[in-house]
UniProtKB/TrEMBL annotation:
Residues 149-302 form the Transposase IS4-like domain. This is Transposase DDE domain. It comes from Raineya orbicola. GO terms for biological process: DNA transposition. It comes from the Bacteria. InterPro entries: IS4-like_transpos (IPR047658), RNaseH-like_sf (IPR012337), Transposase_11 (IPR002559). Keywords: Membrane, Transmembrane, Transmembrane helix. GO terms for molecular function: DNA binding; transposase activity.
């Protein structure tokens, strides 16, 4: 027992050194809790809070660990800007031009809907969570919700250098486009539905009408159209039986090359849900608690992601016949960390992965 507790203590101390580097303002007890929680969810995924408590590397009773989790979710107030800068510092992104991705995901628990609107940053084929809001409602976000969301983001992160904001087909609207162009002053790159009505040379037609001559696999600039009283430069291609039509407020953007990065947030949501942490299994539905839980999972996500990158340099991920990797960098790192945390013989390897988080 003493030997096992000693190894658990060493694991915790290695990770504490990382937190003390980036989150030095936090109380030591809070830092220790984050370490215990993150290591627990990497071992077992996000199941019930009681199961997570049982996976803590601690001599405390499961019920005591559960109360500790509940105190964090009920009462802890963390600094969003501190967390965001923590993420940017670990990924060495503070002074780079950032590509931001906006998307949302939702699920239902009983009669309650959980709807997460998330802003993430694209980095090396992945998307890392940076800012989010949770709503107890079903369906699309309103334009005003998105505007308020972005205003809050810029209050916390006023000095970021942003190349553009990528969004999917639901993120359109007159007031939304006006906000991005005139107040936020950041270019946007939005996928457009093919039946959207646009104005061009005094006529209003579905955007697909102007894309009919685009051949399979051809990437074509179609001109500047007006949508929701905003001028959008439109690019189109035809892939696997469907249109990919992109609208951007800046003609200077390499639209298709940049839009490929949107896949990263799909991978992120899979990591948070079905292919990683299974966040929906916690039975939590109160928005403030889920927002705090996401902070912990974001830290775990970055650890797994950086571990996956490191592993891929040592042993590249197998490429499948369809040309895709067998695993995402996150999944590759997640499975390795899970193995290391569950096997004490892998402690030296675990230490190497922790050191990745504090590299300058």
């Amino acid at each position: 027992m003493a030997h096992t507790q000693g190894k658990a203590l060493r694991k915790g101390n290695e990770m504490l050194a990382v937190l003390q580097k980036y989150l030095s303002d936090w109380h030591l007890a809070r830092q220790k809790f984050v370490v215990l929680f993150v290591q627990a969810v990497l071992k077992i995924g996000v199941k019930s809070l009681l199961e997570i408590a049982g996976a803590f590397d601690s001599s405390a009773q499961r019920t005591s660990s559960l109360r500790r989790i509940e105190r964090f979710l009920n009462g802890f107030e963390f600094s969003i800007s501190l967390f965001g800068n923590f993420m940017l510092a670990m990924l060495h992104l503070r002074h780079q031009g950032l590509v931001l991705l906006l998307d949302r995901t939702e699920w239902q628990f009983g009669k309650t809907w959980v709807n997460i609107l998330m802003l993430s940053v694209s980095v090396e084929g992945m998307s890392v969570p940076l800012f989010w809001r949770v709503y107890n409602k079903k369906g699309l976000s309103s334009q005003q919700e998105r505007i308020d969301f972005m205003r809050s983001f810029f209050r916390y992160f006023p000095d970021l250098c942003i190349t553009c904001l990528i969004g999917d087909r639901e993120f359109i609207g007159k007031h939304w486009f006006s906000y991005l162009e005139q107040e936020a002053r950041i270019p946007c790159l939005i996928r457009l539905r093919e039946n959207l009505q646009v104005h061009y040379q005094g006529k209003q037609k579905p955007i697909k009408v102007y894309c009919r001559n685009v051949k399979m696999g051809q990437y074509s600039y179609k001109g500047c159209f007006q949508l929701c009283e905003t001028n959008l430069h439109v690019w189109a291609t035809h892939l696997r039986g469907e249109w990919l039509i992109l609208g951007t407020t800046s003609k200077d953007l390499d639209a298709f090359a940049i839009y490929k990065q949107r896949w990263g947030i799909e991978t992120l949501f899979k990591a948070l849900k079905t292919q990683g942490f299974h966040i929906e299994h916690t039975a939590l539905c109160q928005a403030p608690k889920i927002e705090k839980l996401l902070f912990l999972l974001a830290f775990a996500f970055v650890w797994a992601y950086k571990t996956g990158l490191w592993l891929n340099e040592r042993k590249p991920i197998r490429i499948c016949p369809n040309g895709r990797r067998e695993f995402s960098f996150f999944r590759y790192g997640f499975l390795f960390l899970q193995y290391c945390l569950l096997n004490d013989t892998q402690y030296p390897q675990l230490v190497k992965t922790i050191q990745l988080l504090s590299e300058d």
